[in-house]
Amino acid sequence: MTECSVSLDNLFHALADPTRRAVIEQLSHGTASVSELAQHHDMALQSFSQHLKVLEDCGLVSTRKVGRVRTCEISADNLAKAEDWISQQKKVWHETFSRLDDYLSDLQNGETQE
Amino acid sequence: MTECSVSLDNLFHALADPTRRAVIEQLSHGTASVSELAQHHDMALQSFSQHLKVLEDCGLVSTRKVGRVRTCEISADNLAKAEDWISQQKKVWHETFSRLDDYLSDLQNGETQE
Q1: CB count in 10 Å sphere of residue A75
Q2: Is residue A114 part of a domain?
Q3: B81 touching A, CB under 8 A?
Q4: Domain that holds residue B101
Q5: pTM (predicted TM-score)
Q6: Which residue, among B7, B12, B60, would best test binding to A if mutated, counting the most A CBs under 10 Å from its CB?
Q7: What ipTM is given for this predicted complex?
Q8: Domain annotation covers residue A113
Q9: Using CA atoms, how far apart are residues B7 and B15, in angstroms rounded to an integer?
Q10: Which residues of chain A neighbour B57 with C-beta distances below 8 Å?
Q11: Any B CB within 8 A of A83 CB
Q12: Which SS3 state, helix, strand or coil, does residue A111 take?
């Protein structure tokens, strides 16, 4: 696995393409060979292999070759890294919103007591 | 909000850049003006505005202008759409993995009873 496997730039770039997301969706149901994956996509095998390389380079998919068959597997840990970044922003946003809500409630109560 | 606000292609593309992720991180702490956001980034205002436009076009950030000040706000709902897609793939993957685990356990128990 290369250094870019932990790069959010590369992870989100890989996920920004419908073919690559479809591969992740397929692989979430279990391992598959390159030809099993490619048959669902109306494009040349060379083009499909380039999409697979993007997923492999950023660590979202791992592959291993036994004989003439290359089998692909999802790397859930790296998928989780992209999810964790988004979750963290949402968490901070909700905390900020909640504090603002409390502040506005305090203001309103203060006004009521006057 | 334009049609592309719900496009995962555009959402993930927007998140694949460190400047744009930094803007999201800043805005998760509360609203900010364009100049408040821009001061943290060592680039021309025009370049920064282009990043902001990408975030605005895909619905991750909304802006409103009062007088000469444009204020930016995060759109948590669209951030959640990107997170939901990833969560769904992880969920399916874990279910698949769990079923495989059960199957292997059953196999092992069968072998033990023989």
Answers
A1: 20
A2: no
A3: no
A4: 3-108
A5: 0.84
A6: B12
A7: 0.83
A8: no
A9: 13
A10: none
A11: yes
A12: helix
